[in-house]
Amino acid sequence: MPSTAPDAEAAPKTQPKAKTPTPRERARAQTIADIVRLGREHLAVHGAAGLSLRAVARDLGVVSSAVYRYVESRDELLTLLLIDGYNELGDEVDTAVAAVPENDFAGQFRALGKAVRAWALREPASYALLFGSPVPGYQAPGERTTVPGTRVIFRLVSIFDAAHRAGALKTQASPAVVIPPALAADMVNIRTELGITVPESALARGVLAWTSVFGAVSFEVFGQYGRDTFSAREELFEHQLLVLQGMAGL
Amino acid sequence: MPSTAPDAEAAPKTQPKAKTPTPRERARAQTIADIVRLGREHLAVHGAAGLSLRAVARDLGVVSSAVYRYVESRDELLTLLLIDGYNELGDEVDTAVAAVPENDFAGQFRALGKAVRAWALREPASYALLFGSPVPGYQAPGERTTVPGTRVIFRLVSIFDAAHRAGALKTQASPAVVIPPALAADMVNIRTELGITVPESALARGVLAWTSVFGAVSFEVFGQYGRDTFSAREELFEHQLLVLQGMAGL
DNA sequence: CAACAAATGAGAGCACCGCTCTTGACTTTG
DNA sequence: CAAAGTCAAGAGCGGTGCTCTCATTTGTTG
After folding, report:
1. Could you write out the DSSP letters of every residue in A48-106?
2. Do B182 and A208 touch (CB under 8 A)?
3. Under CATH, which number does the domain A83-248 receive?
4. Residues of chain A found within 8 Å of residue B44, distances taken between Cβ atoms
5. Nucleotides of C under 7 A from a protein CB
6. Are the folds of A1-71 and A83-248 the same?
7. How many angstroms away from the CA of B66 is the closest CA of chain A?
């Protein structure tokens, strides 16, 4: 794939660069892909804080300064890994949700949650990079990370919205809790921004379901549960999803 | 305070060392306390991964190798900061819960949640150390951290147990969700270990409330909410606590 | 095909890190 | 008062991110 522009080919624009990829560009893209791949391996083993460009260079069979030809800095590599992780998670969530019947909204919610958990347990270091403690001194560039970084939450919102449109969302949850005006205003903003029709209270419960799923996954991935407090973690999470879907009105 | 034993004074034991603290011991304890204090400051600024013994030594006005007289290693300092954080959080949670009337169990739950959130927002680096991504290569020594590390969850469990004993816990939540046998067995184990009487389903919902609170706090502290998705974060969290307390049967 | 220019890799170097070891000075204790 | 114990300092090892210079490779173009 080309290094900069997302337009694959054709359409000669004002930029004289975006033609068919020259062999140099191809080699360059391949090298960057190799760096990202090795970076992922190091991330998995040593964590985000232990990600070392020098070590990646060694694995690449090249001196450390050479990788700076391809990656601007360690933070740049972190950004590439961040985008990589967001997209991998987003892909797996999408396929998991798509495998559930269109009108089984609760099942879609559970499939989403289980996909998140499965990916997180398989790639704990990437999960930690995406959803764990922020890497000190590193600020993700929003213009590159927001789109892949919001794929899962968008998917969840779309499930709620589809359920609501289908009349399958219980908007009046069992213990009715009033929403203060300031919070309601936020919810209205979100609703208009996303172009959905879910009422405020249901939207708030959806947000809570979202954060709760990640709380449960984080506890498990980050080892907050005691070593052997829970032996049936799969069942625990499944149960939590069932309770949460009820709370959210699905 | 003495460096090793928790017995303040008197009671001459078999150990010939535990007398009145010598000036040397006092100075040593003071130096260690200074190191921990400076370590906390560095933790707050540079995060756990950026915690540097050399920098602490500089602030202490001493050469780097000198601090190794007081702290075995960087990981040892991390452990001290971990215990420090757990105890500070535990203290604040305890006082916050104690300020609520004894029979207002839902209020106690909310007070606990709000105390956790307030502390986390005030000390994000410590919160990240305690509940965020694990520091790669660092394993907390359980024999020193489990007791302070379980103070808050014990407090929460005790609220649920007291509510149940007082007959104020709705054990049959609105959408009844069956608990698979393996998970029920885990819950029975926990119940007997803690010496409480809460039924399995309520205990499971308590666990979910616990992880959900931390999910919500983590999202806020770790900046997972968009920059300006929510302007009324205080109200959002309060609302989430209300929903969770309903879900948990309080 | 040859010449040129861009892209690339190597190496040295800077300042930082955790940690170890030795040395000399100091303080407490017998 | 001298021995024992404690401590700060400094040098040193291997690691890190990153910059700079220099030589070489490589693709393109006249």
Report:
1. TTT--HHHHHHHHTS-HHHHTTT-S-HHHHHHHHHHHHHHHHHHHHHHHHHTS-TT-HH
2. no
3. 1.10.357.10
4. none
5. 7-13, 16-22, 27-29
6. no
7. 26
Mean pLDDT in residue range B48-76: 91
Q: How far is the CA of A246 from the C1' of C30 (A)?
A: 76
- Range in A17-26, A213-222, B141-150, B204-213 the model is least confident about: A17-26
Could you tell me the residue ranges of all domains in chain A? 1-71, 83-248
Q: Any atom of strand D under 7 A from CB of A52?
A: yes
Confidence band, pLDDT 50/70/90 cuts, at residue B174? low
Size of interface A-B (CB pairs under 8 A): 182
What pLDDT shows up at residue B47?
86
The encoded tokens of residue B176 equal: 């009844």
Residues of A in contact with B223 (CB under 8 A): 134
Report CB contact under 8 Å: A239, B47: no
CATH number of this structure's domain B87-248: 1.10.357.10
Mean pLDDT for chain B? 88
Strand D proximal to B49 Cβ, under 7 A: no
Shortest alpha-carbon distance between residue A19 and chain B (Å): 37
Our measurement of CA B66 to C1' D1, in angstroms, reads 30
Whether the pLDDT of residue B19 is over 60: the answer is: no
Q: Do B231 and A182 touch (CB under 8 A)?
A: yes
Amino acid code (one letter) for B248: A
Report, as an integer, the average pLDDT of A169-188.
Answer: 87
The 3-class secondary structure across chain B, one letter per residue, is: CCCCCCCCCCCCCCCCCCCCCCHHHHHHHHHHHHHHHHHHHHHHHHCCCCCCHHHHHHHHCCCHHHHCCCCCCHHHHHHHHHHHHHHHHHHHHHHHHHCCCCCCHHHHHHHHHHHHHHHHHHCHHHHHHHHCCCCCCCCCCHHHHHHHHCHHHHHHHHHHHHHHHCCCCCCCCCCCCCCCHHHHHHHHHHHHHHCCCCCHHHHHHHHHHHHHHHHHHHHHHCCCCCCCCCCCHHHHHHHHHHHHHHHHCC
| Nearest chain B residue to A237, by CA | B208
pTM: 0.90
Total residue count of chain B as it appears in this document: 250
Give chain D positions with protein CB within 7 A. Answer: 6-12, 15-21, 26-28
Contacts of A230 in chain B (CB under 8 A): 183, 186
Architecture of domain A1-71: Orthogonal Bundle (1.10)
User: What is the band of A20 on the pLDDT scale with cuts at 50, 70, 90?
Assistant: low
